[in-house]
Amino acid sequence: MSPAAASDELHIAMFPWFAFGHISPFVQLSNKLALHGVRISFLTAPGNIPRIKSSLLLTPKTQIISLPIPPVEGLPPGLDSTSEMTPAMAEALKKALDLMQPQVKTLLSQLKPHLVVFDFAQYWVPKIASELGVKSLQFSVYSAVSGGYLIVPVRTSGNKNPTVEDLMKPPEGFPSTSIVSVERFQAENFLYVYKSFDGSPSVYSRSLEIIRDCDAIIIKTCNELEGPYVDHMRTQYQKQILLSGPLVPEPPSGQLEERWAKWLDQFPSKSVVYCSFGSETFLSDDQIRELSLGLELTGLPFFLVLNFPPDFNNKDAKLAGVLPQGFQERVKDRGIVHTGWVQQQLILAHDSVGCYFCHSGFSSVIEAFINDCQLVLLPLKGDQFLNSKLIAGDMKAGVEVNRRGEDGYFGREDVSDAVKTLMVDIDKDPCMSLRANHRKWGEFLQNGEIQAKFIANLVEELKAL
Ligand SMILES: O=c1ccn([C@@H]2O[C@H](COP(=O)(O)OP(=O)(O)O[C@H]3O[C@H](CO)[C@@H](O)[C@H](O)[C@H]3O)[C@@H](O)[C@H]2O)c(=O)[nH]1
Questions:
Q1: Which pLDDT band, with edges at 50, 70 and 90, does 187 fall under?
Q2: Which one of the listed residues 80, 119, 372, 417 is annotated catalytic?
Q3: Quick one: average pLDDT of 35-40?
Q4: What are the backbone dihedrals phi and psi of residue 12, each rounded to the nearest 5 degrees, phi first?
Q5: Is 147 in the pocket of ligand 1 (CB under 6 A)?
Q6: Which CATH class is domain 258-445?
Q7: Sequence ranges of the domains in the chain
Q8: Over the stretch 392-450, which tens digit does the pLDDT of each residue have?
Q9: What pLDDT score does 135 carry?
Q10: Contact present, 322 and 339 (Cβ < 8 Å)
Q11: Active-site residue flag, 429
Q12: Does ipTM come in above 0.95?
């Protein structure tokens, strides 16, 4: 009998990549497990602790453990999450993380958890954990469709990295769904997954080592959403794959900032387009111009959030400089443009907001479904392209902005057409059927009994490991 099965109380060490797009789903998973009496030790760099404290369910059985990042070249001290880092610094962070093996081993030997649940970057965790008799599980915060498209051993058969042409097509064995190919600009973006930086292993190499060495993989999805893709991963990985379900967030606590609540209150129910691109996705100046002019063309009220990579010091000045001339004056009665963090879940839950124009981040799209906000998708990198195909293609529950295949260019009309399909032409198809499908998925995700069952099953499976 494994130690976990021997005692009723499961103890899990959670160890996400130091990025909030990863930390948040780890927090959500921890919270749902904690409600089943699971003891949680949450490992992170010190600077992330205050924000984690605001969302992690703090019970007597939950603790947050500080893991200082060792100094490495290219990563200024004091930066603890990728939201503060340039892409080059985030690569240096992977190197720093790799240097943390002794520290993590000592910590695990003191904590003595039954399981350690870790992220894509820490490929060395399974080895350390098995030396200590601790089971290790990767938690993938990405969809199964993206994992199965990009991270399967056949992508490098013959030991060669895939080319753009290879990546335009699904890998061998990929299920027959609406995804038969991707555009060239998307495949070019996928090359990142296979690229090693300055001797540091690529995301793909790290992932393959994890698939080989860990005890099981948990994916943040369910069969209802991604059944064929989950089956495909099981066949390709030859590893136990557990599903956490989509981890639908609890209704957010707190109140929407008064200035935003007041502004939104003046518009009719479900009329406002909320447009934002998550925590680490940025648009180029040209894309911002076409997006903003496209929103203007729709004639609808909108709340646009635009962020910039961390190396921009004065973000408000950058924003003012990048918006088209006269734009803010022209739209002042019906448009807000903001840079910085917003209370996304509270905005989506506001009665006036009827549409979420977004990057297809896997948590963001779930938040749109449960808040009855129509989805207009402008995926900009990696898994987002595949999430968007899942929603707009397989599920037919949203619309993707039309783009030029070669370079991904989109114009203002493409933006406006996509929004109007869902927000203006509502008595015609395809809008009627898209909205019906969206509603169906929203109901599924809001069904508390179904969602609770995902976690109850997971807890049983974890105890049985
Ligand atoms: O101003 C903001 C921005 C984001 N959020 C929240 O942050 C989360 C963002 O989630 P998601 O869109 O899934 O993640 P990102 O961090 O934007 O995206 C990264 O992580 C995702 C996996 O979770 C991937 O799908 C994306 O490609 C990757 O860029 C959501 O809960 C949002 O509500 C806010 O509350 N306020």
A1: very high
A2: 119
A3: 96
A4: -120, 130
A5: no
A6: alpha beta
A7: 3-248+449-464, 258-445
A8: 999 999 999 999 999 999 999 999 999 999 999 899 999 999 999 999 999 999 999 99
A9: 98
A10: no
A11: no
A12: yes
Atom of ligand 1 nearest to the CA of 22: 23
Between the CA of 142 and the centroid of ligand 1 the distance, in Å, is 11
Q: Inform me whether the pLDDT recorded for 304 exceeds 70.
A: yes
Given a cut of 60, whether residue 351 has pLDDT beyond it is yes
- Identify the three-state secondary structure at position 300: coil
Residue 3 above 70 pLDDT?
A: no
| Strand pairing report for 115-118 and 135-140 | parallel
Active site residue 22: yes
Give, in order, the Cα–Cα distances in Å from 207 to each of 122, 194, 327.
9, 10, 45
Q: Could you tell me the distance, in angstroms and rounded to a whole number, from the CA of residue 361 to the centre of ligand 1?
A: 6
Q: State if residue 344 touches ligand 1 by the CB under 6 angstroms criterion.
A: yes
Whose alpha carbon is nearest atom 12 of ligand 1?
Answer: 361
Q: What is the b/e burial string over 32-62, where b = at least 16 CB atoms within 10 angstroms of the residue's CB?
A: bbbeeebbbbbbbbebbbebbeebbbeeeeb
Topology at the third CATH level for domain 3-248+449-464: Rossmann fold (3.40.50)
pTM of the full structure? 0.96
83 lines ligand 1 (CB under 6 A): no
Q: How many angstroms from the chain centroid is the CA of residue 412?
A: 26
Q: One fold for both 3-248+449-464 and 258-445?
A: yes
What integer is the mean pLDDT of 346-351? 98
How far, in Å, from the CA of 149 to the mean position of ligand 1?
21
